[in-house]
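Hi all, long-time lurker, first post. I run a small reading group and we've been trying to get comfortable going from sequence to structure in the token notation. Rather than ask abstract questions, I figured I'd post a concrete chain and ask someone more experienced to write out its structure so we can walk through it together at our next meeting. Sequence below, copied exactly:
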Amino acid sequence: MGEIVWAAATVHAPQLLTRPPQEDQAQLETSISAMAELGKGLDETNPDVLIIVGLDHVEAFFPGVVPAFAIVTGPRAKAGFAALTWDLPIHQNLAGALAEGLIDDGIDIAYTDEAPLGHAFMAPLEFIHAGRAIPVIPLFVNVYMPPLPSPRRAFEVGQAIGRVLAERPERVAILASGGMSHYPGTHKYFDPAYDFDRWVIQELEEGRVESMLNLSSVQLDETGNTELLTWMVALGASGVDRGELLTYQATSHHGHGVMRFIPAKGERGQIHRDMANYGGFKFRDEGYQFYRHPTPEEYPLNRGLAELKRSPELRARYVLNIDGVCEELGLSADNIGAMKTYSTAALVAQGAHGILALSTLLALQVSAKDAGIVVATVA
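-- Answer (accepted) --
Happy to help. Here is the structure in token form:
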């Protein structure tokens, strides 16, 4: 009989990989050290495979198809971000068994032989897996392109994963990559819901997973915490109802949380027993506020951004001929005006998805620099 021998959750902020000078380096080091501590747990438990429950920052699937859950079943897991890359073997036998077993259990999971793995996978591979001789299985959860699965559904998918694994021989580690509160590409970027994060930590350390399951995906969007859906999958799979906090860093724009779900030896982390419901956060419950699916009118702009993000050749042409490439992409005059500003806020005002706009503009900045063109800082 198989078993989950290790389960945890981690931040994957891109700044951990790029180390920009404006960041608090001590906070980054603390997060990285906590991730390295999780890696020691892999040495202690010696799993046969590491399932990484990650996510798509609108880089792998949109605009072709946006699955709620997807598993990569091909031979290799290829991750890359900035100048870093990882290329690891996938445990194909178990990946295929999971895809088949989940379908048999009523989970309509998508599967693909390959998918680009961005920093949601790159950061845990760099600082937790760290080149250990452990094959992996990447699993995607849709957390940024609504409609999103609910926390309860993510937990149920995790439970189904646990049932499949129970019939297998492998000893499995499962890692949730995501969170905590942050709002990249939006006006809330420098105003995360830190107290909500601390309430989540309290509830998990007290063993009240049900508190998370009673939230909606819309409420997670309000708190900048849709990435917690990956945590729900790992919790459901592991069957563990308590967490132990290794670190929480309230950076200027992001709550960095690192937690293990199978308690290790020694003292438990600090428990915040006196926090009010939701850390005092007041929900509006008015639908997705920060990351919305584009309307039909907004779709051409978002499709064009996705094409630019994926194609270095198209970006190289774009920086030399913005009008021509924008017209080729079917963008409106107002869209083109916003594109020329290199401003995330201007594109979001036109209906662009915040994360897609931000990441595409950053890629365009690099292409412009390569062409010897100076553009304004992305904001």
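A couple of things your group might point at:
Residues 299-370 form one domain.
Confidence is low (pLDDT under 50) at residues 264-269.
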